[in-house]
Amino acid sequence: MLVQTVISLVSFAATVHAWGDTLAHPVTGTLAQKYLSANGQKLVASLVDSTFSQSLAGQTANWADTWRTAHRETAPWHFVDMMKAPPASCGYVSTDCVGRNCIIAAITDQTNVLLNNQCAPSTASTQAIQFLAHFLGDISQPLHNCNRDVGGNSDKIVFNGAQTNFHSIHDSEIPQAYAVEKGFSTTDAVSVANYLDGIYGKNKNAYTTSTFIDLKTAMANDANSLDCNKNAFWSLYDKDPSADFGGAYYTATKDLLMEQVAKAGYRMAAWMNAIADQCYGVGPVPTTKAQVKTTATTVVKTKTMAIVTTTTTTTTTATSVPTSTLVNVPFGTCLHSPCTAGVGSTSKLTPHDSRYPTCDPLDCLSKIAAVVPHCTTVGWSNKVSVTGGPYGCVDAVYFVCGNTSCGIPTSA
After folding, report:
1. Which whole-number Å values give the CA distances from 122 to 4, 44, 277, in the listed order?
2. Which residue positions does the secretion signal occupy (predicted)?
3. What string of DSSP letters covers 272-293?
4. Alpha carbon separation from 370 to 99, 327, 396 (Å, rounded)
5. Is the omega angle on the peptide bond into residue 87 within 30 degrees of 0, that is, cis?
6. Which of 116, 128, 154, 237 falls between 20 and 30 A from 173, CA-CA?
7. How many CB atoms within 10 Å of residue 302?
8. What is the pLDDT of residues 245-278, one digit of tens each?
9. Per-residue model confidence (pLDDT) at position 283
10. Would you say 56 and 32 are in contact if contact means Cβ atoms under 8 Å apart?
11. 3-class SS at 63?
C-alpha cells in the first residue's frame, strides 16, 4: 500500500490498553469484518494497512492506541467526559465535547476525511479508517463516556486478587475472564466473536438502526446509560469499593459489557458499509426479477460536506420483489448544506433520508438552537432580522460553534 511505511512507524510494544488490546477490540473488528457488504469489503481492503492484512479483524482496531503514544494530541479523541454524575445522572450535552476534542467529534471528523477524499487511498484515508475502527469500539465502552474519577482510572481496585483500576477491568480483565469462562483463550478473538454473534446476532438490526448509526451521541448515550444502571457499574462500585471485583461484580456486569462489545462490531460494519456506499455508489437496487439498471454518482463538496446524488434509472417490467432498504447518505447529512440558507430563508435543515429524525453534520446544532432558536424551530436563515437572534444561522456556525467549515464571516 502507499501508506504502509507512514502508518507503521510506531511499534506495537508501546500499545496503550483500551477495550483490551488482546481481545475486546479484535473481537469488535472480527465481527465488523464478518458483516461488511461488498462495498465495505472493498473499502477496507483498499485502505487498511497491509500490516493488518487489509482487514478490520486482528490488531487493526488497536492501531489508534499505538498511534497516540507518540501523538498525545489524539488522546482526548478516545473518550467523552460526560459531566453528569453517575449513578445519579447520565446523558450527553454538547458542552461535554469542549473544542470538538472528544470521541464524538473524532468519529465525525475521521468520517469526513474519508468522504472528502471519496475514499481514495492515501495516508490520511488509512489513518481515518483505522481511527474509526478503534473509536467505534471505544464509544461503546461505558467508562469511555463518563467523567467520574477520570472514567474510573483513578479508582484503585482488586480484580481476582490483582491490583488494577476500575476503568481497566472493563477494557481488559472482564472480557478476558469472560473468554476463559466460555472455554476460550484470552487471545482467541475469532472464537469469542463467533460466540457473541450466536447470542446477539439476532439483535443486530436493532443495534444498527438509523438512530445509532446516524447520531454519534446516541451511541455514547447508549453506553453512558449503563453507568447509571442501578444493578451494575458505578452503583455496585459505590456499595463496596474494597471488594474483589472478580466476584459478584463480574457476574453482574459481564453480559452487559460483552453485549456492548458485540454492538460495537455490528455498528462498525454498518458505519463502514455506509461510508463505502457513499464513496462507491450503492449500485443497482433489485426492484424486479429483471434487474433495474441504476447509475448513481455521489459528489462530496469538501468545504461544506453537502452531498448531491444524481440517478438515472431504466426499468424493465417483471414481477415485483421487495425493494432493498438502503442507507444512501448517512452521518447526519441534510438536504442542503448548513453553509447556505434554506430556500426562501424559511427551510429547516432537513435530513437527506426521511428515515432519520434529524441531521447535524456539524455536531453543533444544539448550541446554535440555544442562541438562535429560529434556526431549528423555524428555518435555516442567515438574516438576523428574520432569526431575531444575534446571528444568522450560517454565521452562527462560526460565532457559536467556532467551526470554520462555512468560512469566517467578514464581520468576525
Report:
1. 10, 13, 19
2. 1-18
3. HHHHHHHHH-------BSSPPE
4. 17, 30, 11
5. yes
6. 128
7. 12
8. 999 999 999 999 999 999 999 999 999 999 999 9
9. 53
10. yes
11. helix
Q: What is the pLDDT of residue 357?
A: 58
Q: Cα 386 from chain centroid?
A: 36
Domain ranges in the chain are 4-280, 283-325, 332-412
Choose among 62, 52, 23, 21: nearest CA to 196: 23
Which amino acid type is present at position 194?
Answer: N
Record the cell numbers describing residue 402, joined without a space: 467556532
Contact call for residues 353 and 236 (beta carbons, < 8 A):
no
Look up cell 472455554; give the residue.
183
Which residues 6+ apart lie within 8 Å of 49 measured at CB?
A: 1, 3, 4, 7, 8, 63, 126, 130
Is the separation of the CB atoms in 60 and 66 below 8 Å?
Answer: no
| CATH class of segment(s) 4-280 | mainly alpha
Q: Which is it for the CA torsion 182, 185, 188, 191, positive or negative?
A: negative
The position carrying cell 477494557 is: 171
What is the value of pTM for the model shown? 0.69
Q: Do the Cβ atoms of 366 and 91 come closer than 8 Å?
A: no
